[in-house]
Amino acid sequence: MPRLPGINHLQAVKALQKAGFFIKRQSKHIIMTNGKNIIIVPRNNPIGPLTMGGIVQEAGLTIEEFKKLL
Question: Which residues, including other chains, have CB under 8 Å from residue 51's CB and lie 6 or more apart?
Fold first, then answer.
């Protein structure tokens, strides 16, 4: 699984919104969708590198694409 340095969950949500995702629901986790994919972002600060890598992969992005969105 790809690795990213740990980042704040709010930064991750903003980057995913730039990629076309929107917030569907919020509780202990933030559920986001683009109509096709559903991803779950935990409210951890920072989100661990392996977890963040998995989220980026589920979103259908590469690490480089995601870093540009940050």
Answer: 42, 44
What are the structure tokens assigned to 67, written together?
A: 């870093």
Structure tokens at 63: 């690490």
Contact, 36 vs 50, CB < 8 A?
Answer: no
The predicted-structure confidence for 19-56, as pLDDT tens digits, reads as follows 999 999 999 999 999 999 999 999 988 888 888 989 99
- Predicted local distance difference test score (pLDDT) of residue 25: 94
Comparing CA positions, the residue from 64, 55, 3, 7 lying closest to residue 33 is 55
Residue 4 pLDDT more than 80? Answer: no
- What's the CA gap between 41 and 65, in Å, rounded? 18
Backbone angles phi, psi at 68, to 5 degrees: -65, -30
